[in-house]
Amino acid sequence: MRRIAGNRAARRVASTLGTLFGVAVFVFVMLRAIPGNQITAGLGTEAAALTPAQKQALEQYYGLDQPLVTQFFAWLGNMFTGNFGYSARSQQSVLDLTLHALPVTFELAVFSIVLALLIGVPLGMLSASRANAPRDAFGQVVSLAGLSIPAFLLATTLLSIFAASFGFNPNGQGFATLIENPLLNLQQMFLPALVLGFGIAAPILRTTRTAVLEVRSHDFVRTARAKGVPERRLQVRHVLGNALVPIVTMTGLQFGYLLGGAVVVEQVFSVPGIGRQVLLGIQQKEYAVVQSTVLVIALAFVVVNLLTDALYRIIDPRVRAS
């Protein structure tokens, strides 16, 4: 057993390292494929007026005069020593920027997942309780709306309605952390989390409905009902309890997505999260900011997947025994 567990751990470590290396290569190559660099982004049209000597000096300063392979492994080596690079735009190290932005995105992701579960799981169970009935149709409509309405459209619509009709726009006051001002922070997180949570609730709703319908068809459910088990206890403990693995898996995937995929909502609501940091880095062609931040997001996604895998090994003995 120890040998099997050791082999499984070794495979996971190798898979994680391979994934991170692949992400690093992909981001590095894609950034160089985009027209322009730090020099043209910083100087704009004035870059055309640079003399060859000035251009060469700036390329040496940014390391652009080195071969691409040298640039890549130099950046990767610096990452291992904790040197994530430097942002000329904000006059801060990328590590400091990430340490400030990552908790913000993590908080937004947690609130969004909580709202998504509060919407998706009950509606999924309601839909599965009577398939093809009006309640099932209602759940399918909500799911379709969550999947089809773009996040930027829903975000701008809600922001406009709440600001114009109710004078509610806490995001215009400057971002406050949960420690600095808990009440203002929760107000600023409400609309972004609602937008993201509504979109994420759709796949969670569909996964819940499918999983619950499958479990309800098993013999032990009919046996428990025949023995007189109360309906609420039957649905929560026996049906939902045995349908948790796909729900947890989907929730983990969506949580990992939120760590880097909330960029549009963060931009609309001026939330200084990790996705917005990547967007600003791309706009300014700050290679170090984008490369290092994306690699951190990829690492966080891998960690979330590992934790999700560990969680459903805890809740399902069949998976734990495999």
From TrEMBL:
Entry's Gene3D superfamilies?
MetI-like (1.10.3720.10)
For this protein, the record's PROSITE patterns field holds: ABC_TM1
Membrane topology label: Multi-pass membrane protein
**Taxonomically, which superkingdom?**
Bacteria
- A GO-annotated cellular component: plasma membrane
The UniProt keywords, alphabetically, are: Cell membrane, Membrane, Transmembrane, Transmembrane helix, Transport
The ABC transmembrane type-1 domain covers which part of the protein? 102-308
| Subcellular localization | Cell membrane
Q: Which GO terms describe its biological process?
A: transmembrane transport
Which parts pass through the membrane? 12-34, 108-129, 141-166, 186-205, 243-269, 289-312
The keyword Nucleotide-binding is assigned to this record: no
Could you tell me which InterPro entries the record lists for this protein?
Answer: BPD_transp_1_N (IPR045621), MetI-like (IPR000515), MetI-like_sf (IPR035906)
| Chief place of localization | membrane
Keyword Membrane listed? The answer is yes
Q: Which family does it belong to?
A: Belongs to the binding-protein-dependent transport system permease family.
Name of the protein this chain belongs to: ABC transporter permease
Per the UniProt entry, what species is this protein from, by scientific name? Nonomuraea deserti
Its ancestry begins with: Bacteria, Bacillati, Actinomycetota, Actinomycetes, Streptosporangiales
